[in-house]
Amino acid sequence: MAVLSKANGALLPVLLLLVEWIVLSRQPMPTAAAKRWHRRAVTVFLVIPSALVAVYLLYLLPGAIHDAPVTRGWTVGERLLTEARVLTDYLRLLVIPHANSSGLFNDAFPLSTGWLQPASTLPCVVLILALIGAGFALRKRHPAIALALLFYFTAQLMESGWIPLELYYEHRNYLPAMLLFWPIGLGLARPGKLRWAGVAAAGCILLVLGVLTWQRAGLWGDGTRQAQLWAAINPDSARAQANAALYDLAHDQPRLAIARLERSLPRHPDDIQAPINLIGAECRLGAVRRQTLEAAEYALARTRLGGQTAFNWFNDALEIAGKHSCEGLDFAALQAILDSVRRNPHWRDIPGRQQDLHHLQGQLDLAEGKPDAALGSFNRALAASPAPGPALEQAAYLGSHGYPSLGLAHLDYFATLPPGPKPGFGMPRIHAWVLRKQGWWPKETAYLRHTLETDAAERTAQTVK
After folding, report:
1. How many Cβ atoms from other residues are within 10 Å of residue 362's Cβ?
2. 446 band by pLDDT with thresholds 50, 70 and 90
3. Taking the CA atoms of the chain, what radius of gyration do you get in angstroms?
4. Is residue 425 part of a domain?
5. Domain boundary at 126, 157, 188, which?
6. Does residue 25 sit in the same domain as residue 165?
């Protein structure tokens, strides 16, 4: 269940093995038979699953080395160097708690491109290695300290290792930090003449942490103030500035949002967050400037990230263009934006991105009254990455816009395509297996086909009349 909920749940047997090796193995077994059964249980339920996790992580390494420069813009080596500084910063936040932190927007965290670039990289690497070494060295004399250290760094393997995830997220510490302060708790609870001092210290710690939690909860309960604070703490984060601008727009302050995004745009010309949100802010005033559209085209032609963000934004922009409610944002402007996406070298070889691009082109074609061109674009979207979900969605889209016969033609085209690639290991593959066992897609396809055929027949009858 842990693995199905979150990928790092796969580390559970590794973490339990650490607990067994450092702490629980010290407890003697009552009989020799019990000891043998215990060893077998540890081997079957902890050692073998842990070995499988290690093999799986190693299996992911070649793909990570290949994909990271394309999808993230940094290498696995640069990521590992950077994560030493990230982990050090995590520890700083844990050891010295603050009411406020950088929050969810850490896209501007500096990348380590060498051992001394920035200069803090090497000291942080040495610190992390020293703490891990201390964990092994203290295993027999101070098992609580050893377990706290090794548990923390082991629990970071998935999200702070070589898998090319985002570099920094503070919430990744929830599980790793679970035992980090256990040794302090044991020390404060130690019996003796000075136990009262330990109790007093524990009370003070709880009081301070309670006040900090109250302050942080108050901030999280006020989205506007939180967005403004995070934008101030992270001036170089395009996401933080875009998030604050969205709150400005929600409070009917488009000029403030425009000013914020205009300051952010020169700092991140390749990031799509500022220009696409700037288009939305200017449209709130009735017109978008040509230079803003050009900034969006420039970013979309160069960005590595944000494909889903761009996809969702284009749907909203298409609706605005269809209503003619924003001067300058018309179908021609959206076509120029799609053309700029086609020039993006980072998305050119990603089937999912190409499918999105053709799908958006089909929507634009249909909005411009070119249904046959829309069918061609939707067919190219399926050819880029054949899958029943997009096929049904696009066929239904054609039918809902008055072209059920084209929707049927789209389904017929999908039937001629070879099966698409299987989903990757994990929940997507399990979900696909469940749908296949239920016969979900054949049933949905038959239902949609019947609906389109009925609609097409009605339209033909009306034409004859």
Report:
1. 25
2. very high
3. 28
4. no
5. 188
6. yes
CA atoms of 308 and 4, how far apart (whole Å):
23
Q: 294 and 406 share a domain?
A: yes
Q: Is 400 helix (H, G, I), strand (E, B) or coil?
A: helix
Q: Which tokens in the block code for residue 48?
A: 């073998």
- Each residue of 15-44: pLDDT tens digit? 999 999 999 888 888 888 888 998 999 999
CATH number of the domain where residue 374 is located = 1.25.40
**DSSP letter for each residue of 4-67:** HH-GGGGGHHHHHHHHHHHTGGGSPPSSHHHHHHHHHHHIIIIIHHHHHHHHHHHHHHHHHHHH
pLDDT tens column, 34-78: 889 989 999 999 999 999 999 999 998 998 998 888 888 899 999
Looking at the structure of the chain, the number of domains it has is 2
Q: Supply 108's token pair.
A: 């501007």
Measured between alpha carbons, how far is residue 15 from residues 50, 53, 161, 286 in Å? 9, 11, 16, 57
Longest Cα–Cα distance in the chain: 101
pLDDT tens string 134-151: 999 999 999 999 999 999
Query: What is the SS3 assignment for 377?
Result: helix
CA distances to 95, 144, 190, 204, 275 from 197, in Å: 20, 21, 10, 10, 57
Strands (E), 196-291: none
Rounded CA-CA distance 278/249 in Å is: 10
Q: What is the pLDDT of the chain when averaged over all its residues?
A: 91
Q: Using CA atoms, how far apart are residues 258 and 245, in angstroms rounded to an integer?
A: 8
Are residues 124 and 25 part of one domain? yes
Token pair, residue 223, equals 């989205």
**3-class DSSP assignment, residue 293:** helix
Helices (H), 349-439: 351-367, 371-384, 388-400, 404-416, 427-438
Question: Residue 247 sits in which domain range?
Answer: 234-419+433-464
Does the bond joining 442 to the residue before it have cis omega, within 30 degrees of 0?
A: no
Task: Report the length, in residues, of the chain.
Answer: 465
